[in-house]
Structures are given as structure tokens and as C-alpha cells.
Amino acid sequence: MPPRPEGQRRLRLEITVFFAYCLIFQQWFLKQSMLRRVGFVVGLYLAITIPLYVAFHSNACAVMANGRIIAVAADENIARKVMGDLVKFKTSEAGRPVDVLEKIKYKGIRINQQDVLDQEALREELASALTFKAKGAAILVNGEQKVFLKDIQDAEALLAWLKTVYPVEPGDQLGFKETVEVVETPVDLENTLDLATAQRQVLLGTNKIVEYKVKDGDNLWDIARAVKIDLDQIIFTNPGMDPENLEIDQVLYLSKEAPLITVTATRETTVDEKIPCPVDVRYDDKLLLGEKEVITEGVPGEKTVTYRISRENGFETGREILSQIVKREPTTEVVVKGTITMVASRGGSVRLAWPCDGDIVSPFGMRWGRMHEGIDLDASYGSDVVAVAGGTVVSAGWDGGYGKQVQISHGGGLVTRYAHLSSIEVSVGESVDRGDVIGLVGSTGNSTGPHLHFETIVGGVPRDPTNYLP
Ligand SMILES: [Zn+2]
Q1: What 8-state DSSP symbol labels residue 8?
Q2: How far is the CA of 441 from the centre of ligand 1 (A)?
Q3: Which InterPro entries does UniProt cross-reference here (predicted)?
Q4: 264 has a pLDDT exceeding 90
């Protein structure tokens, strides 16, 4: 027979000792008087029940939201009263019935009295921990609830307002690019916006609205650079603003987000247009590339065209020809064009024209640690800027720090740029001749005063324009 394990032997010993104590206790108990025996039993009972009573009897009321304690009141009546008052207050504040979203329960608990909240603290605690919901309306964009308002009327007013934000042309059919719906739904009071705030949220794409108040000496380009937001985006989110005439104290809304809803406008329009003359080109190696001589003047034709023009948030996005009627065919123009390229002519006798009258006030080269990629010509505001040679307009519009600018390609890899213009007189694709007015001197973009910034770009690399000027 194997020896018994140590544990079993120990247990047997402990049981034996326990029974021995019981026997000693019984001997002692039976020797006592009846009074002492009763006293002992009562004493033992109290010693067990009092701590149990204290441990399990509640002295406060916990307010539970979705099974979690959010506050402790002195008792359930007080908790219910404070909750009722709070809902009543929220209801009068919202002007319509308000409910608490969470499931509320009251439960007796035992707690240190100093942890019980007084009525005011209880109300604050409940107000911040709970979500109050009321009947309201949501605007759904592509099926997603994006904006919450107090009612359908506000939601519909917002959508109607949105259609008036961007310029509307006669005959425009207005709509939204996204699927936009309005639904009646319980809304969280905290996320419910008043109409004006909701309008800005839709326009700026966010409810984190940053306002900027224009200061004396500000220009839009500097503001855009300082807040690191695209200049076009600022123009986009502030419809009706004139980028060149900011007023002091004017408020700009800044956002990096796109508008939540895109307003589409479609219209059909019928216009009379000229049909450009077909050009019969002959080449002459004694003329500068881009220059031309007309041998036979052509007569443009005439046509009536019906377009369907689409715009999104005011910007044209499509122009579809629905029909066109030719009223008169054009006649052919015969021209002679030069073939000498500017690069080949460097140092030779062929030179560019001056783009405007004025002295060079800032030369080509390093300036303030940065490369100045052109020359600045001192010229008065509004004076003519002309094409320095014949060519085709390849860019005409706002371009960052250049402000309003025009680029002309003269062939042979030569492009000239005219920047900070106050107005542009040509459009992309247009042919220009040497000496044609292409714009007026101004101070748009990163400019401290009226001047013309002029660049000659050869094969994509800016070169010193004075090499090509007379
Ligand atoms: Zn410059």
C-alpha cells in the first residue's frame, strides 16, 4: 500500500483539531447559567447581522444611463424631480418636446454621504452626461445625415437659399449634384444648428468655421498664404466677394473643405457666332516666327449656335452644342508666316518689342535670396501691356502670386509671361500679333504696387529678358 499523500494527512489532522475545540466549547457553554447562554447567542447574532445590514442597506440613489452610473442623488424622489425639471427646461429652451435618448434607471446604493450631489450639481452632471433629443430635420447628402436643423421648414429654407448663393443666369435650371434629401427625424439638440450656422456649414463643408477680419493693407494673396488655404478656395467659399477690393473689417470665411452640396445650373442659350476664316499659310524665312503678313483678307462666316451650358457652384463645367445653323460660310485668308525662332536670333538683329513703357526697376536674377525669374517694369496702373511678338495665348487668368497673368507661346520653345495685370484682354487659344494689347498694368497677386513682371521662358527655363529686348 502506497503512503498517503502529505495533504490528506494534514486535512485529517485539522478536522480532528476542529472537533476537539467544539467539544471544549460545548463543555464551557453547558457550564454557564441560562442568562449567560441567551446573552451569548444574541451577541453572536448581532455581531453577524449588523455589518451585513450596514453593507447592504442603501443610503443614496444612483442615476443610471444605459446601465452606467452617471450621478448620485440623496434619494430617488430628488433624482426624479431634478431629471423632470431638466427635461422641462430643455423643452422650453428648444420650443418643442424633448426626450432623453439614454435609458434611465434609478437604483438605491450605499455610498459615503460626501459623494452625494446636491441638486444643483446633480442637474449639471445630468445635463452634461445625457443626450437630449427632439423632433427635428436632417439634410441627407448622398444618403448620409450631414446637417441637423430644428424642423423641415429650416432645412428647406437652407436648400432654397443655397440655390441663390451663386450667380444665376436667366433660364438656369438649378439643382444639386449630390442626392439631397430632407427627412424628419429625432435630432440631438447639441448638434442642431440654427439656420445661419447651418448655411455656413454647408457652404464651408465644416462646422469648424474660421472667420478672418480683413485688416488695413491686407490682400487676398497674403491671407491665403498665411492661412495655407488655396486662393481659389477662399474665393469659392465667399461668394460675392471681390478679390481685388477687400474692405477693412470685411469678414472672410476660411475652410479647407469643399462645400457639402454642389449647386448645379444648366441652361440653353442661342448665340450668333463668327466662323473663323480657314487660313492658307505660306512660310517666309525672313520673318520672325509668330509674325505674319496677310496677303488676302478673309471674311469670317456667321452661325447661330444653341449650347447647353452646365455650371457647378458658379463655375462653368460643360458646354455642349445642341444645334448650329451656318448663315454664311467664311472665305479663306492667305497669310505668310515667319520661321526664324527667337532662340536662333539671340544676338542677331531680330528683337522682341517692349511689353510696356517703363524702366526696369528690378532686374532678372537673385533677389532677397530668391530667384527673380523676370524683370519688373515700372508702369502706371491701367497702361497697356502688349505682346512682344506674335504667338498664341497659352494661359490667361489668375495664377497664385502672379495674380492675373498671360502667357504667350511664340513657337521655337519661347514663352513670354506678363504678370500682376489689372485686367486681361485676351483668352486662351487666341492668336496675337506683335504689339497687340493683351492686358493692362496692375498690382494683382504678390505685388506691392503697380508694375509689370515680364518673363521670357526658353525651353521651359526662365532667361534674362534683356537678352531679347532692344
Ligand atoms: Zn517681378
Answers
A1: H
A2: 13
A3: Cell_wall_metabolism_enzyme, Dup_hybrid_motif, G5_dom, LysM, LysM_dom_sf, M23ase_b-sheet_dom
A4: yes
